[in-house]
Design a protein that fits this description.
The protein is an alpha/beta fold and 361 residues long. The chain has 2 domains: 4-147, Response regulator (Rossmann fold); 160-359, Rossmann fold. It contains 12 helices and 16 strands. The protein has helices at residues 13-24, 38-48, 64-73, 87-98, 120-130, 135-148, 181-184, 211-221, 275-286, 303-311, 329-335, 345-355; strands spanning 4-9, 29-35, 52-56, 79-84, 103-107, 160-161, 171-177, 198-204, 225-228, 239-242, 250-253, 259-262, 290-294, 315-319, 341-343, 358-359. The strands form 4 sheets. The chain has a 7-stranded parallel beta sheet, sandwiched between helices. It has a 5-stranded parallel beta sheet with strand order 2-1-3-4-5, with helices on both faces. A two-stranded antiparallel sheet has the order 6-16. α4 packs across α8, α9 packs parallel to α10 (303-311) and α10 (303-311) crosses α11 (329-335). The longest helix is centred in the middle third of the chain and has 14 residues, at 135-148.
C-alpha cells in the first residue's frame, strides 16, 4: 500500500521534532519534509507535492492562514491545522476552516506543547482522512459555495407555521456534525428564519475550550438566537442550543409540560458530547415531532439515534456525499435505513424548514 506523503510545518523546533515522531511512528504515513516557517512551508509544498500537510498557525515570515490560502488556491493538498487552545486560537482556527482547511487539532498546552502524545491519535486519524481521494475537491467547492452564498437568509419573508398537532406547539431539530462542521454549518444555520417553529439542538464535535467562540461565531451569522446549552434552561422555539464540549446535551420534559436541558457527563462515549445521546434524548421527549439531521463527520455517531427518530415517526435528513467533507456519519445512517431525505449541505436548511411545517411563501 502506498504511504501518505506528509509535510509537517511548525516554527518551534520542539514541535517539529514531536510532530515528526508522530508521523514517522505510523506505518501508513511517510514524512516527506519539515518546514520551519510559512515561506519555507509554501516552497516545500510546491516542490514536494505532499498528500496532506500538518500546518501551524502562528509562524514568522508568513502565517498559517496565508499559507493555507496559497495551498488551496493552487490545489496542492488538504491541510490539517495545528492550533492553540486559546480564544484567539479558536477564532483563527474557524477562519482557517472557512478558507478550506480540512480540520484542526488543538495543542494541549498552548502554542508549544510538550505533550502532543495526548492528541497524536487524533492528528494521525485526521491526516489520513484528509488525504483521501476527493477531499480537496469537496473542500474547494465548499469554499466557493460559501463565498457565493447570498448575505440575506433564504427566507426573507416570515415563515408561516402549519398546524402540526405538536404537543409543545413546535418541533425539535436534532443536528449532529463533526469533521468539516464549523464551515459546513455556515451553509445551514444562517439560512434558517428567526421564527422557525422548532428548537434546534446542535452537537458539533469540538474541544470544550472552543465552544464559546464557536457559539459566538454562529450567533453573529444567524437569525436564530444561538446560545450555549446550560442545565436548567427552558427550551423555546427559534433558539439553537449548542452542546458544550465537556458534557452531553439532553432534554427533559417536566410534569408541567415544559422542556428543559440537562448536561450530564454520563454515559461515557467516544465523543463528548455525543450526537447519539443528544438525539435519543430529543426523540424521547418530542417523538414524531423530531427532525434528525446528520451531516459530515468521521465515524457513526448518531446513526443509531437517527433510526430511532425514523421509527418514532419523525423526519430524518442526511447530508449527501456530494458535499460531505467526510461521508462517514451520514453514510452510516443511510446504510442503517434511517434516512428519509438525502440532500447536499446547501439544501438542508430548506429541508429543515419543510420538515418543521413552515412555509417560506
Amino acid at each position: 500500500m502506498e504511504r501518505i506523503r506528509t509535510l509537517v510545518v511548525d516554527d518551534s523546533a520542539l514541535m517539529r521534532r514531536t510532530l515528526r515522531q508522530i508521523v514517522e511512528n505510523d506505518p501508513e504515513l511517510e514524512l516527506v519534509g519539515v518546514a520551519r516557517d510559512g515561506l519555507d512551508a509554501l516552497q516545500k509544498a510546491r516542490e514536494l507535492r505532499p498528500a496532506v500537510i500538518s500546518l501551524d498557525i502562528n509562524m514568522p515570515q508568513m502565517d498559517g492562514i496565508t499559507v493555507l490560502q496559497h495551498i488551496m488556491a493552487e490545489e496542492i493538498c488538504p491541510v490539517v491545522m495545528v492550533s492553540s487552545l486559546t480564544q484567539k486560537g479558536a477564532v483563527t482556527t474557524f477562519e482557517a476552516m472557512a478558507l478550506g482547511a480540512f480540520d484542526f487539532v488543538a495543542k494541549p498546552d498552548g502554542t508549544v506543547s510538550a505533550d502532543m502524545s495526548r492528541v497524536a491519535k487524533e492528528l494521525v486519524s485526521k491526516l489520513k482522512t484528509a488525504a483521501r481521494t476527493g477531499v480537496l475537491s469537496r473542500l474547494r467547492k465548499g469554499v466557493n459555495r460559501r463565498r457565493d452564498q447570498p448575505s440575506q437568509p433564504m427566507f426573507a419573508q416570515p415563515v408561516q407555521a402549519h398546524s402540526t398537532g405538536a404537543r409543545f406547539g413546535y418541533k425539535a431539530v436534532a443536528l449532529g456534525i463533526s469533521t468539516g462542521g464549523p464551515s459546513t454549518l455556515m451553509e445551514v444555520l444562517p439560512l434558517l428564519p428567526k421564527n422557525l417553529p422548532a428548537a434546534v439542538f446542535l452537537v458539533q464535535h469540538m474541544p470544550a475550550s472552543f465552544i464559546r467562540s464557536f457559539t459566538e461565531r454562529l450567533r453573529n451569522h444567524c437569525q436564530l438566537r444561538v446560545v450555549e446549552a446550560e442545565a436548567g434552561l427552558t427550551v423555546q422555539p427559534g433558539v439553537c442550543y449548542v452542546a458544550r464540549g465537556d458534557c452531553h446535551l439532553v432534554t427533559l420534559r417536566k410534569i408541567n409540560g415544559e422542556v428543559t436541558l440537562r448536561t450530564p457527563v454520563c454515559p461515557k462515549t467516544l465523543f463528548m458530547p455525543s450526537v447519539g445521546v443528544m438525539m435519543s434524548a430529543v426523540v424521547d421527549v418530542y417523538g414524531s415531532e423530531t427532525v434528525g439531521v446528520l451531516m459530515t463527520g468521521i465515524g457513526d455517531d448518531g446513526a443509531d439515534a437517527m433510526l430511532k427518530v425514523k421509527q418514532a415517526g419523525g423526519h430524518t435528513i442526511a447530508e449527501s456525499e456530494e458535499t460531505s467533507v467526510v461521508f462517514g456519519m451520514p453514510r452510516a445512517a443511510i446504510e442503517r435505513g434511517a434516512v428519509r431525505v438525502v440532500a447536499p449541505s446547501y439544501a438542508i436548511a430548506l429541508e429543515i424548514v419543510r420538515a418543521t411545517g413552515s412555509d417560506a411563501n
